[in-house]
Amino acid sequence: MNRKIAAVAAIATVLVASACSSSSSSDSKSGEVLSKDGKGKKITVWLMDDAQKQWPEVVEAAKAQFKSETGADVDIQWQTWANYTTKVDTALLSDNAPDAIEIGNTQAAKYIDAESFVDLTSVKGKFDNSDKWLDSLAASGKSADGSKTYAVPYYAGARVMIYRKDLFEKAGVTTPPTTLTELKAALDKVKADNAGTANFSALYLPGKNWYTAVSFGAGSYGVDGVIGKSSGGKWTSTLTDPKFVEGVNTWNELQKAYSVGGTTVDETDQDARMAQGNIAAIVGNGWEVGSVIDPKNGNPDLKDKLATIALPGAAAGDPTPAFLGGSDLAVPEKAKNAALGATFLQIFTNTAQQTALAKHAIPNAKNLVDAFKAADPANEAAGNAAQGKTWFIPNSPMWSGTNETELKNALSAIAAGGDPAAELKKVEATVVGTLNG
Predict the structure, then answer these.
(1) Fewer CB within 10 Å: C terminus or N terminus of the chain?
(2) How many CA atoms lie within 13 Å of 319's alpha carbon, on the beta-carbon side?
(3) What is the per-residue DSSP string for 148-175?
(4) Residue 330: CB atoms within 10 Å
(5) pLDDT at position 220, please?
(6) Per-residue CA distances from 81 to 48, 50, 103, 119 (Å)
(7) pLDDT tens-digit map of 243-280
(8) DSSP 320
(9) How confident is the model over 65-95, as pLDDT tens digits?
């Protein structure tokens, strides 16, 4: 673990040194953060191939508007997530960094701390809907103290409860549950009605699916403070906060009562498991419906039998907070056309482009999510989750796989019978120590 922390710290140190020693891009020398002086120029933008496959028309519309307003062309270089972090690390150290890039929102803190991105704080208000950005995406693009903005929200995905309508209705549950009390009553009926099915889970909650377990513990916090909170540059743990432990205990009670055989695994194969027919509900990203019914690895016969709802919370209209994953967009500090890159991001995330993107994914602002929900009735649950209370990992540049592993191990031990408070206490020092480097 110490070697891993040292390695991450070394990367951050190198990036900081590079940023501080580099000569800034030509247009940032003039103090411009946004520029429309692009005649005869071409900027380079790195985007994930999700956009190429799902919303290429949005990208083309943004390119056309950018060309019209600046005179500059755009070279979109399509990327994949495999080994992407290593590629970004290398690019940000070079003198040939792209002018704008997409990053996962869990990756942003490392680069922001290293001062590898252009500070967009002074022009944040010139980005459409910036006062209504989704909480978790907006938080991921800020400095650790929340005072500055370095990355712009792009799009999001939210976790929901995916369930078998046919099994719930057969058990007499015809109205989707809206509270935890209603959920437990519904699951009791589904469990009893399928008592003869081997290894049946009314709600499959694998022990190492830390995203779901932590969601129950996140209900007492806003977007900040889940797992840890920062004050004066120092992180302290919330893992043993009685409110957090109470939430994890709720998850533990659900998994003990309704989940079978998943205490030592995570959610990686839950879609395939659900396709086999002995799981009535899972908690996952909305797009996992497609994975469950995939003709190749799933069960297409379930196509009309699945539905989604926001994971119920203590009260109706107040669902359990969803972890909001997604992507941000940023301008590398060493970009040659940084101000033009920022202008492209301004256009690419404007209301028109984001409304068009909403046909395919959750857009970056709460006021635009209704367009996502209107695009397909199946989007309503994920849209509601995104518009509600969400949570995000501690915005520390030192967050790493170590933290996830520690949490997974603690939750697996809890699922296997361990005391929630005691098991969380065991990993608390390691998690906080990692956050503080």
Answers:
(1) N
(2) 26
(3) -B-EEEEEEEEEEEEEEHHHHHHTT--S
(4) 28
(5) 84
(6) 7, 10, 9, 25
(7) 999 999 999 999 999 999 899 999 999 999 999 999 99
(8) P
(9) 999 999 999 999 999 999 999 999 999 999 8
Under the banding of pLDDT at 50, 70 and 90, the label for residue 437 is confident
Q: What does the alpha-carbon distance between residue 332 and residue 28 come to, in Å, rounded to a whole number?
A: 11
Could you tell me how many residues make up the chain? 437
Please name the residue that has the structure tokens 């071409």: 42
Cβ 81 vs Cβ 388: under 8 Å: no
Tokens at 151, concatenated: 């990355």
Look at strands 42-48 and 100-104 and give their pairing: parallel
Domains of the chain: 2-156+325-374 (3.40.190.10), 158-323+396-435 (3.40.190.10)
Which pair of structure tokens corresponds to residue 66? 């950018």
Within the chain, how many helices (H) and strands (E) appear?
Answer: 19, 10
Q: Which residues contact 183 (CB under 8 A, 6 or more apart)?
A: 177, 203, 312
Strand 322-330, strand 390-391: pairing: parallel
Distance of CA 277 to the CA centre of its chain: 28
Residue type at 15 in one-letter notation: L
Please state the pTM of the whole predicted model.
Answer: 0.88
Distance of CA 365 to the CA centre of its chain: 14
- Hunting for tokens 């307003």 — which residue is that? 69
Q: Tell me the C-alpha distance between 75 and 163, whole Å.
A: 42
Please report how the helices 420-435 and 242-258 are oriented relative to each other, as an axis angle in degrees rounded to 10.
120
